[in-house]
Each structure stands twice: as structure tokens, then as C-alpha cells.
Amino acid sequence: QRVVLMDPTEDPDDILRANRSREKTFVFDMVFDHRATQEEVYVSTTKKLIGGVISGYNATIFAYGPTGAGKTYTMLGTDCEPGIYIRTLDDLFKALEAATEEMDYRVSMSYLEIYNEVIRDLLNPSSGFLDLREDSRGSIQIAGITEVSTTNAQEIMQLLTKGNKQRTQEPTAANKTSSRSHAVLQVTVMQKSQRQAIGEEMRIGKLFMVDLAGSERAAQTQNWGKRMKEGAHINRSLLALGNCINALSEKGGSRTQFVNFRDSKLTRLLKDSLGGNSRTVMIAHISPASTSFEESRMTLIYAYRAKNIKTQV
């Protein structure tokens, strides 16, 4: 459960800095090394959330980390090693089928990207930029997004792979297929009892799976012009997310914290899933390379803060 981060620039013979080591230890719920399989990561991070979604709680899974550390691989995976998206949906459908004696259920999903603070539908890219709106109950909706209802995991895999090809990817010096946008897969499970009762209850559980764009330093990715602008937008929305996480993790403290969800489209979309009745998992990715020591350190601090969020469900 521990990550020890060693500073590559440290020199054992440097007497002046002998007691000023920048070695850091972080404690998490679970730490995986390079030998971990997709299945292991899925079982110990996401599998337990499915029961919650079926009983009407929200759940969110984030993949966070510097560019090129493997976020898209964890979430989408490859055909022979599917990632969290597919494994979660597979288990979700199995669990629903097992529990459908007296419940009618409908599963709908949408897949979108947030690029430069605008929202694009990845299942129907020709629809242009979409708006975030709040409905009368105060929940956030995306006007005009394509919703697909299906209970077949194979179909979904094809849809997601197709959607992922529509994602904005550009080469940078750090990664030749760097995702320049946050991809959000939103799955809504609606259930109602088949017996027509008077006060009929309806359970709605939302599952968000977010493949964030890589946090990046312009120096490392050698970005200029358009790439630089994208990087600024990416870092801005990640900063807004970080601010929300900070405010939420200090909420139980002495001062009442205001959580600014409206700072970016990403945090506004995830408002219910960060502070509401939801369970959140953050999978932080770090690279073992000594050149990315700073990135790894920032990523671990960020994820460590997220660990302190306590929500009242």
C-alpha cells in the first residue's frame, strides 16, 4: 500500500544536503507495480462499486496522471486486454440480469469529450459543441447528447473503440498519441418495480468513468502554439478539479469550505459524483522514468488529497 518516490538527482556524497532528502512516502488503499494485470486493477478498484450503482448510488472512476503514463490503456484497454470500461459494464449487465425478477431496468450510456472547455459527443461527432444545462431538479444535463441503450457488452466495446478514434489526439514530444481531452463515459441505470404500486419508486444510479487528459509541463512536451493552448486548458480544468478536491477534503474542518464546481465544465458535470451521494475512485498513473520525477510527485500529492474526501451519502 506504500509508494516510495526516490529523487533521481540525489547524490549520496553531497554532505550539505545529507539530511534534506526529497524522498517521499505515500500511503494509498492499493498500489500496483508494473506486473499488475488489467483484471487485478479492475477487481481491486472498481468491482465493488457496481452493487452501489444498482442500488441507486452514483460512482465515479478517474484515471489521472502525466501524459504517456497509461490512462487510456487502463480505461479502454486493447481488444485482448480490455480495460475498466468494458469489464465494469460486463459485470453490471450480469448483476442486473441476476436481479431482474421483479425490476424493469434500462441502461443508457453516452460518451463525450471535453476539449478546450467545449463538449463534443464522441458517438455522434457531427453534432458540434453541446451545452451543459441544469434541469428543474437541479441535476446537470447535456443538451442533445446521444444516448445509447444496449445490454450487450460487445456492442459497447465497438461503440467505445469507434468513439475513441474520434477523440482529439495529437503528438507531443512526450507521447505520440497524447489525448488532448477528457473523455467521460456516463452510464445511467434506471430501475423500477414491475408491480404497479401507488408510490412507485424509481432508482437511478449514475456511473461516470473519466479518462482525464494528461497533466503536462510545456517544457517536457515541448509545446508551442495550438498544443500550448490545449495544454493550458487541460491544466486549467485539472486545477479546477484539484481545487474542488481540496475544498471537499477540508470540508469537515473548522472553516466551511465553498466548493467551486462552476470553475470548469468537467467539475460541473461531475458535481453529483464528487460531492453528492457517490463513491469515487481515483487511479493515479505514474511513470517509473527518472525524468518524470516532478510529474510523479505532483500526481501522487494530487491523488493523496483525493483520498481525504469524506462524503455524507
TrEMBL record:
Domain Kinesin motor: 1-309
Ranges for region Disordered: 162-181
Keywords: ATP-binding, Cell projection, Cilium, Coiled coil, Cytoplasm, Cytoskeleton, Microtubule, Motor protein, Nucleotide-binding
InterPro entries, per database record: Kinesin-like_fam (IPR027640), Kinesin_motor_CS (IPR019821), Kinesin_motor_dom (IPR001752), Kinesin_motor_dom_sf (IPR036961), P-loop_NTPase (IPR027417)
Signal sequence, start to end: none
GO MF annotations in UniProt: ATP binding; microtubule binding; microtubule motor activity
One Pfam family it belongs to: Kinesin
Compositionally biased spans, kind Polar residues: 169-181
Gene Ontology biological process terms, A to Z: microtubule-based movement
Gene Ontology cellular component terms for the protein in this record: cilium; microtubule
Top-level taxon of origin: Eukaryota
Classification via PROSITE patterns: KINESIN_MOTOR_1, KINESIN_MOTOR_2
The keyword RNA-binding appears for this protein: no
Subcellular location: Cell projection, Cilium; Cytoplasm, Cytoskeleton
Physiological role: Plus end-directed microtubule-dependent motor protein that regulates the length of motile cilia by mediating depolymerization of microtubules at ciliary tips.
UniProt name for this protein: Kinesin-like protein
UniProt organism field: Grus americana (Whooping crane)
